[in-house]
Write a structure and sequence with these properties.
By secondary structure, this protein is mainly α. It contains seven helices and two strands; from the N terminus they run H-H-H-H-H-E-E-H-H.
C-alpha cells in the first residue's frame, strides 16, 4: 500500500480506505522486528509495538461486536483481559498478532459491506465510564471515524516506541516494507548488522 490512500468513490470507500491506511501504518512499525523487539518497552510507558498492534486489533473487533450488538466476551472477561490486550504475552508472537490484525480487518470490511446505511444506529453501551450517558446511539459512520482516530493515535505511539527500539522511523520503514527505491533524501530502512563478537 503506498503512503497515501488512493482516490475514493464514496464515503464508505473513503472511511474503509483511511482505516486500512492507518492499519498499514501501524503494521509498518513492526517491519523487521523480532518477537523480543516487538515485546520491548523502551520508553517511559509500558507500551510495546506488538502490544499496541494487539490492542488495536482487539479494540477494532470489540467495536464491530458493538455495531452488530453481539457479545464475544462478558464484561468481566473484557475487564480482566484489558491490560493483557496491551502486551505481547509470553508464547504470543509478532506474526500471530499481525495475523490476528489481518483477520480483524477482513471481518470489519465484511461487516461494513453488509450494512446498507452507515447512519445505522449503534446503541451506546451503558455503564462504561468513558461512554456518554446522554447519547443513546452512535452510527456506523461514527464508529468507523473513531476506529480511524484510535488506530492513528496508536500508530503514533508505535512510531515513538519503534524509534526507541532501533532508531527506525516511519518513512524509511515504509520504504523498506513496500520496496521503494533509495533516493538521495530517503533511504529504505535496513536492519543493523549484529554486533561483532
Amino acid at each position: 500500500m503506498p503512503a497515501y490512500v488512493p482516490p475514493v468513490a464514496d464515503e464508505r470507500e473513503g472511511l474503509l480506505g483511511y482505516l486500512a491506511q492507518q492499519r498499514h501504518t501501524l503494521r509498518v512499525t513492526a517491519h523487521g522486528l523480532t518477537d523480543e523487539q516487538a515485546r520491548a518497552t523502551p520508553t517511559a510507558s509500558e507500551l510495546s509495538v506488538g502490544g499496541l498492534i494487539k490492542h488495536v486489533a482487539t479494540t477494532e473487533r470489540s467495536w464491530m461486536d458493538t455495531v452488530l450488538g453481539r457479545e464475544r466476551l462478558s464484561r468481566s472477561e473484557r475487564e480482566k483481559n484489558y491490560h493483557a490486550a496491551f502486551r505481547l504475552e509470553p508464547g504470543e508472537t509478532l506474526a500471530g498478532v499481525l495475523d490476528l490484525y489481518a483477520e480483524v480487518a477482513a471481518e470489519t470490511e465484511e461487516i461494513v459491506a453488509g450494512i446498507p446505511d452507515l447512519g445505522q444506529a449503534v446503541p451506546v453501551p451503558k455503564g462504561v465510564p468513558w461512554f456518554p450517558d446522554d447519547v443513546e446511539a452512535w452510527s456506523v459512520r461514527w464508529v468507523l471515524l473513531h476506529l480511524i482516530e484510535e488506530t492513528a493515535r496508536h500508530a503514533g505511539h508505535a512510531d515513538i516506541i519503534r524509534e526507541a527500539v532501533d532508531g527506525a522511523t516511519a518513512f524509511p520503514l515504509m520504504a523498506a516494507a513496500e520496496g521503494w527505491p533509495a533516493t538521495p533524501w530517503l533511504q529504505p530502512w535496513k536492519p543493523s548488522p549484529p554486533p561483532a563478537r
